[in-house]
Amino acid sequence: MELSLEDIEALIEDGIEDAEADVFRTRGPHDDDHLGATVVSPAFDGLSLVQQHQLVYDALGEHMTTDIHALELSTYTPEEYEEHAG
């Protein structure tokens, strides 16, 4: 079963407390199964970038190896996102 962008957003939002996820297609060098995601959650507060990304990968579980081939992540706390969005 292929996951829709909405399915991936739901997995992330269900797996990370108070998360808001925006998942979109990016253009890969050979195909268009590359995805990008912006995830905002207070759960990221105090975590390193690697730990933040690990939370997202954990929320996606086995889909990271079966359905999702490339995922470019941007993770923010709500405060960081406010600054980033400016």
TrEMBL record:
Family affiliation: Belongs to the BolA/IbaG family.
Full protein name: BolA family transcriptional regulator
InterPro entries: BolA, BolA-like_sf, BolA/IbaG_stress_morph_reg
Cited Pfam families: BolA
Entry superkingdom: Archaea
SUPFAM superfamilies: BolA-like (SSF82657)
Organism: Halocalculus aciditolerans
